[in-house]
Write a structure and sequence with these properties.
It is built from four helices and 15 strands. With 283 residues, the chain is an alpha+beta fold. The strands form three sheets. Strands 3, 5, 6, 8, 11, 12, 13 and 15 form an eight-stranded antiparallel sheet that branches. A five-stranded antiparallel sheet has the order 4-7-14-9-10, with no helix packed on it. Strands 1-2 form a two-stranded antiparallel sheet. Strand 11 and strand 12 form a beta hairpin. The N terminus is likely disordered.
Amino acid sequence: MKKAIFSISVIAAVAGLIACGGGKKADSSEAQDEAATVTAAVPEYKLLDLPIVDLSTFPKDADGWITLFDGKTFNGWRGYDRADMPTQWVIDDNAIHIKGSGAGEAGAKDGGDILFAYKFKNYEFEFEWKVAKGSNSGVFYMIQEVEGQPAYISAPEYQVLDNENHPDAKLGVDGNRQSASLYDMIPAKPQNAKPIGEWNKGKIMSYKGTIVHYLNDAAVVEYHLWTQKWTDMLQASKFSQSEWPLAFELLNNCGGVNKEGFIGFQDHGDDVWFRNLRIKILD
């Protein structure tokens, strides 16, 4: 397993600023600024380099849609930060089903997030999803695999939720943690999710940094990666530089150097189903 190691620290820069003070004693506000800068240093992290699949071996129809799940096998799928599939994920009536463990996020003995083992860049990804009562999950995209960290450390999230019964629906700002929202940043409007037990149609479009979320054939979220507005949204969220410097660093540079990443599903300890997964590559 080849690993790329990255580290960012600003401690040396802070020391240099203090040394260049010309003998002037820093006042309390300057000292506070320096302390905040040190706090925001990004911890060392490792990006994994696990094998990817040959996308040309997956079925493709006349319109260019590639089937990512055949309803019978986990061909092409594996666990995040691992080479195999967690057994908490099963195939149930032609759908991928994360069995509710009640153990919270990735808390089951052999649970955890999963992904399709190919990095996508410009595409339309279609899927269907349904939830049990009180269930929570998400669709991640632009995932960078960071050893020992959850998928959401680097990936925007299309929220999947029981809006009526899960408390997260009432948290955040203006409904930005409800179904199809860009989690904790942009609320899905209109909010047209179907009740528990019913299938919803979802779609994510990614094209040169423009991202659109769809829910039941309506465009409900649109935003643009790698812009000042994107940085500002991160700063106003739980992924801000001061509160979570590693998440801010990875999300602010979403998709890494090549601006691409994996698509995957979240294990939040609840029963959720996904089916009819297909993707069209956009030139």
